[in-house]
Amino acid sequence: MKREIDLKLLKVIHTLVNTGSVTEAARKLQQSAGNISYQLGKARELTGAYLFIRTRNGMKPDSTALELSQRYQQFIESSINAPDLFHSHQRNTLNINTFPLLEMMLANNICNNKSSDALFRYIFNSYMSNPYERLQRLRKKDIDIDIGNKLPADEAIITVKLFTSDVYVLVGNQHVPVDGSLSMQELRSFQYTICSSNPDYYSDSIEGALRTSQFIQSRKVAVVSGSMINMVSLCANSPYIMLIPNNFAPILEKNFPVKCMPLPPELDIRYDCYMHYSAQLERNFWLLKSIHDAIASIHSYNPQYEVR
User: Fold this and answer.
1) Cα–Cα distance between 303 and 60 in angstroms, integer?
2) pTM for the full model?
3) How does DSSP assign 177-243, residue by residue?
């Protein structure tokens, strides 16, 4: 780096790393988007690095930005007064509410992260899908982190968009078509497994939304389950198929004999995933660090899906 960078710029970079958006960073820091862009330009000049690459899904940090964000976290850690630090260490559990596929992804990263400080025991609660019950559990602090469909807006809750994913079809390896693609006619001939707490699938156009709705309603449903993992296992060992956000394809194809295949061009179905946590956790460095680590672990599977 050319010259030492001050704390104010570190905070801007840290906020951009964790929001992936100039607009959202400006909102959190109570500044204008123009001022955030100006400070980012100043930071680029000081560091000699580009820091962020603008993608269609948001601002993607480079290694220098991540290093500076970590430096800011370390400063905050060292600035915590003794009573708060003691209280933070006394807290040794992190309660998470999320659906089984994300639980599998997070647990896998926790298990394989050899550099983890193991600050918390991670408790994955039985998934609750009702949005108002999820919000109530966050307010009451029964849950620290909630990941899934977007919850209603609440001033006491921080909402972070984790990723947007195209929706694919999951098929057992024994039933993958020879040409590696599926037509609308073939899709309609299969029987489906579905989750009792369906993700919020959508399309980006009115025509697409209509086709999506017609397709989903006309599917031949064979099995309804509360567990996506059970459905994946069923599809791996039967002719049944299911719709799945493609963001989960790497971990599923690694652990099950399945293939995630794109939908026919007539269907454009997408899924958005959000993380929610209490705004009060912003004052707890250790919990906040775990939240940031959870975001990083999800992005590590598909780095092209960045926070907006």
Assistant:
1) 9
2) 0.65
3) -TTS---HHHHHHSEEEEESS---EE-SSHHHHHHHHHHHHH-EEEEEES-HHHHHHHHHTSS-BEE
Rg (CA), the chain: 21
**Residues 6+ positions from 209 with CB-CB distance below 8 Å:** 202, 203
Q: What is the 3-state secondary structure (H, E, C) of 274-299?
A: EEEEEHHHHHCHHHHHHHHHHHHHHH
Residue 88 identity: S
Torsion of CA 200, 203, 209, 212, to 10 degrees: -70
Indicate the residue type of 34: G
**Torsion angle in degrees (nearest 10) through CA of 8, 14, 15, 19:** 160
| Length of the chain measured in residues | 308
Tokens in use for 225? 């389950």
CA gap 173, 256 in Å, rounded: 9
User: Per-residue pLDDT tens for 210-258?
Assistant: 998 899 889 999 999 888 889 999 999 999 999 999 988 988 998 999 9
